[in-house]
Amino acid sequence: MLLDIICFGLYSIAAAIIVTGLFDHHGPKKRLALPVAGLALVLHGFILFNLVILEPGQNMSMLNVASLVSWLISVTMVLASFKLPNTILLPVVFSFSALVILVNPLLPDEHLMHYSIQPALIIHITFALLAYACLSIAFLYALQLAYINVRLKEKKASLLHSSLPPLMVVEGILFKLLMVGTVLLTFSLISGFMFLDNMFAKEQAHKTVLSIMAWLIYSVIVFGHIKFGWRGKPVISATIVGSFLLTLGYFGSRFVREFILN
Questions:
Q1: What angle do CA 150, 151, 154 make, to 5 degrees?
Q2: What is the CA radius of gyration of the chain?
Q3: Where are the domains of the chain?
Q4: CB under 8 A, 24+ apart: contacts of 44-49
């Protein structure tokens, strides 16, 4: 629990450094925040390893999966911050990781799996986690794009406005993320149908259906952008809906099974 509190504190400090800098004329102090975030990520990874890798198998409980996804997103966003304009999103990512790392030990649960017996399952889960992480980042960029649109329509710009990246840059990154995420989600679904026999079983049917619905939405967005140049509010709204369906599919039923019905 001590390590979780320390990790929570590091994430919180990194987020606070960036947030306070957003309202400063000098801008976000990213050079100060990233080393702190780096320490949080290393500690988070160590905690995850000890939580997931157990002697009888791998503990893929809902909160462990959420913690793993938040770690993947945080790592990706920190690495991307050296090249891409995502500073304003980092506090959101760090805060979510901090929350998950704090709540996880308070709600212990086990969902043991044996990947050594089902190695093909690793392929499916890897694609699923990467797809969800990528599309979650796309969701964050969609929110950022929506906020920039709102700020551009206002006559008065605040100090925060000066920290925002150009709209076209954010939009370009959003569509790249949607394309990559859709491809990964496609591979996730294909590998699931190839390697799993229970994709439409009672416990998995809702996840499969919701994932396919999300895939259809993302595919239409990507096709519409490439073929017809779709952009703006419809794309943002559809991205948010797709993210909601995917999250409901990945975590909705497990939350009911592991915490409400348990």
A1: 95
A2: 19
A3: 1-113, 115-262
A4: 44/7, 44/11, 44/71, 44/74, 44/97, 44/101, 45/71, 46/3, 47/3, 47/4, 47/7, 47/101
| Model pTM score | 0.88
Burial-class residue 55 by CB neighbours within 10 Å (0-12, 13-18, 19+): exposed
What's residue 108's pLDDT? 65
Q: What residues contact 97, with CB distance under 8 A and at least 6 apart? A: 11, 40, 44, 67, 70, 71, 73, 74
Q: What is the DSSP letter of 92?
A: H
Tell me how far CA of residue 85 lies from CA of 34, 60, 145, 242, 254, in angstroms.
14, 33, 12, 23, 34
Task: Name the CA dihedral angle for 103, 37, 95, 253, rounded to a multiple of 10 degrees.
Answer: -50
Q: Which residues contact 84 (CB under 8 A, 6 or more apart)?
A: 173
Q: Which residues of the chain fall short of a pLDDT of 50?
A: 159
pLDDT tens digits, 107-121: 766 676 665 556 677
Amino acid 155: pLDDT: 59
Quote the Cα angle for 226-245-101, to 5°. Answer: 110
